[in-house]
Write a structure and sequence with these properties.
It contains 1 helix and no strands. It has one domain. With 70 residues, it is an all-alpha fold. It is rod-shaped, with a radius of gyration of 30 Å.
Length: 70
């Protein structure tokens, strides 16, 4: 190989190594975000369930039975 080809090949290899590093970093971030998303989904479900329970209790406490049902 001549010097020009070697230089071009070295430059390409350098770029590929840089791109591989970026892909690895992006993959790590993506995995972390996936874990965070799952935690947030669970928290939203817990909060939603708690709010639903509180709302049902509030409705029950506001709906007093008529005297003939007691």
């Amino acid at each position: 190989m001549n010097d020009e080809t070697s230089a071009r090949l070295g430059k390409i290899e350098s770029h590929v190594a840089h791109l591989e590093h970026q892909v690895e970093q992006m993959n790590r971030v993506l995995v972390e975000q996936g874990k965070l998303l799952e935690r947030m989904k669970k928290e939203v479900l817990r909060t939603s369930s708690a709010m639903e329970t509180i709302e049902l209790e509030r409705i029950k406490s506001n709906n007093v039975k008529p005297p003939h049902y007691q």
